[in-house]
Structure formats: C-alpha cells, structure tokens
Amino acid sequence: MDISSANSLSYEDFVDTFGNVVEKNPLVAAAIWSHRPFANLSELEARIVEFIDKLPESGKEGILRCHPDLAGRDLQRGTLTRDSQDEQSQAGMASLTPEETARMYRLNTEYKRRFGFPFIICAKMNNKAAILRKLSERSGNDLAKERECAIDEVKKISSLRLRNLVLPDTQHKL
Amino acid sequence: MDISSANSLSYEDFVDTFGNVVEKNPLVAAAIWSHRPFANLSELEARIVEFIDKLPESGKEGILRCHPDLAGRDLQRGTLTRDSQDEQSQAGMASLTPEETARMYRLNTEYKRRFGFPFIICAKMNNKAAILRKLSERSGNDLAKERECAIDEVKKISSLRLRNLVLPDTQHKL
C-alpha cells in the first residue's frame, strides 16, 4: 500500500497491518496511529524509532524480551511469528547442522544469562557465519553497550518489515 | 504462586505468565522483569502502573487500542483473549439481547469515532446496566479526561488479573 492508504486505516486495521513491525509489540503501531497522517514512509518509520527511543531502559529491554531466540525453541516448534520464520529461514537458521544448532543453543543460553534478553540481529542482513561470529563478539559487550546494539538491530528489522508493507517514498512519487 | 516464585521466573516464563495482565501488551511484563525482585504483589503492581504512567499520551492511547470492543466482533467470533472472554461473560456481555447488542455496537462506534480508541471499563466491577450507562456518560467527556478515565479502568483490570496469578501480600505472610 502507499502512505495515503496507510493513513486512511482505522486503528484496528492499522494495528492488524503494522502490529508486528516491532516483534510481538502491537503497542508501537497502536501508539503511533495517534500521529497520523504521516507525510511519507520515512515519517512513519521515524515515529516508530521515536517511540522506542523514548522508552525507559527497562522498556527497551522489554522490547528485546518479546523477541524469540535465533534458531531456538520457537523455530523448532513452528511457533515463530511469520515474519521471524521468514527472516530466520532466509539467514539459514532453519537448516543448521545438529552441531551448529547445539552451538547456537549454548551461545544463546550464555548470552541470555549475561544480559537478561535474547540475542537479536537483523537476520536478513546477515548470513549464518556472520550471525555466529557476531553472537560471540557481542557477548563480550557490557550491558549498556549491548542493549544499544540490540535495539539498533530491532530498528533494522522493523525498517525492513515496514518496507514490505508500504511503498517507499520515491516509488509513489513516480 | 507467591511473590518469590514470581521473582524466580526466567523472563520467558514471566512474560508467558504475566504477558496479558495488560491486554495484548506483553511489553509491560517484559519491561518490569528488569525490576526484580519485587518485595510483594503491591510492588509488582506499582511497577506496571509506573510503566503505563510514564508512556507518552500516544503510548497510553496505544495501550487502549490493544483492547477489544465490549460485546463486539471478537466476542462474537470467539477471538477474545481468555481473560477478556471471562470478564465480558461475567458482566453479561455474552448474553445481550439482539437489541442490546445493536445498542452497544452503535454506542461503541460513536465512542471510537470520537476518541480513536475503544470504550474500556473493568467489566468485573460492573454489570450490564452500569456498563451501558457509563458508556453513554463517558462519551460526553473531552479527550484528555476520557483517556485518563480509560487508563484508570485498564489499571483496575490489570490489578484483578494480577490477583488471579499472585497471592496477595497478606496471604503469604500467614
């Protein structure tokens, strides 16, 4: 849809459409509906970023905790959101060897014990090797630095999900 | 469970348990997990209230927009959360006459057009007659006043849901 179609949605339809742009956080879409009309996709995205940035640190950690593990229980059980399923599959997380699955599980568990939220990375911008490398690397960060890293990844994921739903600003000017 | 059991939950189990204390807003539970350990149920509840109160006005409206209509589409389709289903049934919303259903639909529609969020009331603290009366009355409020009213009702609903999950402070001192 183009931005004017997005602007014309009722809050119910807006939340149905954009409620998972931030994983399992319909509140973000439900909140930014107050700021309609959006001039363009960039403004819609900026409102999402603004909402996240204004949350207290515990709220940012809350956003992170609503995400599934990479190559974790939800992937194995088939209980990922459709967005996450597509993203994790594309990054090769659905076709790990048993050894790679075991390694991911071990690294995810250590990471969660250290930080109290799951390791999040924009899977569509990374392949399997890069994900494993960055999981190891980022585990060495302190909490404040890593929270910031993880929130930056949430914003990248949201940006790509949004671009699957709304035409980019340049396209609908043609 | 008692408060010490709640304090010992992983964030995954905490969000599974408390994720709908604020309707369809797992973010609230996921965020307040950062504040463990809670001294008692009162502190757990106070953290939820604090999270909601610190949201910007658009965020408070977002919380409201994640709620279903009373006696609305989700009730008819059986797609309410289990909490909402229990609460609406107990208040007689599942056994309205066709005339009452039509009146609720009309009043809800007018309310949503006026305020941009659904009419919310703690159904367990009201009966059918009181709900219909207050829906009419509150429709006359201005936006700021009504947003405040509705958020107060969200807090009452959350408080009762929380008390279904965690033993009151007095009980576990016995």
Summarize, please.
With 174 residues, the first copy, chain A, is an all-alpha fold.
Explained architecture:
The structure is a homodimer of 174-residue chains. Chain A has 2 domains: 3-62, no CATH class; 68-152, Oxo-4-hydroxy-4-carboxy-5-ureidoimidazoline decarboxylase (UraD-like, Orthogonal Bundle). Chain A has helices at 3-7, 11-18, 26-32, 41-54, 57-65, 73-77, 82-90, 98-115, 128-138, 143-163. Chain A is mainly α. In chain A, helix 2 (11-18) crosses helix 3 (26-32), helix 3 (26-32) crosses helix 4 (41-54) and helix 4 runs antiparallel to helix 10 (143-163). The mean pLDDT of chain A is 93.
Question: How do the helices and strands line up, and which of them pair or pack?
Answer:
The structure is a homodimer of 174-residue chains.
Chain A: H1 3-7, H2 11-18, H3 26-32, H4 41-54, H5 57-65, H6 73-77, H7 82-90, H8 98-115, H9 128-138, H10 143-163
Features:
homodimer, 174 residues, mainly alpha, UraD-like, 2 domains, 10 helices, globular
The CATH homologous superfamily of the largest domain in chain A is termed: Oxo-4-hydroxy-4-carboxy-5-ureidoimidazoline decarboxylase
Provide the domain count of chain A.
2
Shape of chain A: globular
CATH topology (fold) name of the largest domain in chain A:
UraD-like
What percent of residues of chain A are in strands? under 5%
Oligomeric state: homodimer
Structural class of chain A: mainly alpha
Number of strands of chain A: 0
N→C terminal distance of chain A: 15 Å
Main beta sheet of chain A, described? none
* Rg result of chain A: 17 Å
Q: Could you name the ranges of chain A where pLDDT drops below 50 across 5 or more consecutive residues?
A: none
Helical proportion of chain A, percent range: 55-70%
Mean pLDDT of chain A, to the nearest integer, reads 93
Largest interface chains and counts:
A-B, 31 and 31 residues
Order of helices and strands of chain A: HHHHHHHHHH
- Please tell me the CATH architecture of the largest domain in chain A by its name: Orthogonal Bundle
Name of the top-level CATH class of the largest domain in chain A: Mainly Alpha
- Total of helices of chain A: 10
